[in-house]
C-alpha cells in the first residue's frame, strides 16, 4: 500500500516535518510504500481560477504540480503536515491545496451526485503544530484539510494537533508526541481496507 506524506512547512526539519517523519516510519514498519512530497521544494504557482480544469479535470498550468497530481489522486492514504501560520496553512502548502481544484473538477466529472456522497480513493490525515495555545488554533486548518481531501475523493480522518510547541525541533522534547505520531502511521495502514 502506498502512503503519501506531504511536508507542508517552508522550514526544513521543523516540528511538523519531524512528526511526519515519525508517522511515515510507523506506516513503513507495517509494510507501506512511502512517497514524500516537500512542498517547499516545488515550483508551483497559485490557482488562476481560469476554469481550465472544468471540462477535463486537468489543470492547464504547466508546472511541477503535474507530477504531483497522480499521487494525490491514487495514494490511498495521505498525511499532510503543517505548522500553523495565522491560524491556517503556510502559503506554500495553501498553494498546493488551491491547485487541487483540478482534482475537485475531476471528481465532479467522474462521479454522480449520489456517488459523491462516498469517498472511493482513501483517507486523509492532518498533522498540525502551533506555537500558541489558542482555543481555535486548529479550526481553520482543519476546514482546509477536510475540503482538500474531499477534492481528492478521500475521507478526512482528523489527525494530530500540538499546541504551544515553539522553536525548531522542540517537538523532540516530547517523546510521547513522537510516539503518538508513529502509532498513527501504524494504525492508519493497519485499518485501511483499500489495496493499492
Give structural attributes:
5-stranded parallel beta sheet, 5 strands, alpha/beta, Rossmann fold, 196 residues
Identify the CATH architecture.
Answer: 3-Layer(aba) Sandwich
Q: Note the run of SSEs as H and E.
A: EHEHEHHEHEH
Question: How large is the radius of gyration?
Answer: 16 Å
In the residues, how many domains can be counted? 1
The coarse overall form would be globular
Helix content: 25-40%
Specify the biggest β-sheet.
5 strands, parallel
Intertermini distance? 5 Å
As residue ranges, the low-confidence spans are none
CATH superfamily placement: Flavodoxin domain
Helix/strand-derived category reads: alpha/beta
- CATH-derived topology: Rossmann fold
| CATH first level | Alpha Beta
Mean pLDDT: 95
Proportion of beta-strand residues:
15-25%
Number of helices: 6
Total E-strand runs: 5
Strands ordered across the widest β-sheet? 2-1-3-4-5
